[in-house]
Amino acid sequence: MKKLVLILVCIGLLSLPLSAMAITSAQKQTDINEGLAYLASTQNLDGSWTYNSIAGPYPMAATAAALLAFVDQKYKPTG
Asked: Distances in Å between the alpha carbon of 51 and those of 20, 45, 69?
């Protein structure tokens, strides 16, 4: 009987985070838009991006990763 109660408690505890993590597609899109706004605000004057304000050995990789985020959302610059 103790094992059955323990199993039921474990199942109940495992199901809690799933409902807490559920978000709507509108919330998800809002978060994506905020991420893109952050990327736009951290773009360097020459149009590139860097990791943690350090160009490092692969500055093109940081720029490519940032641009892929915009391309994935079919972002088109307005200005």
From this structure: 32, 15, 15
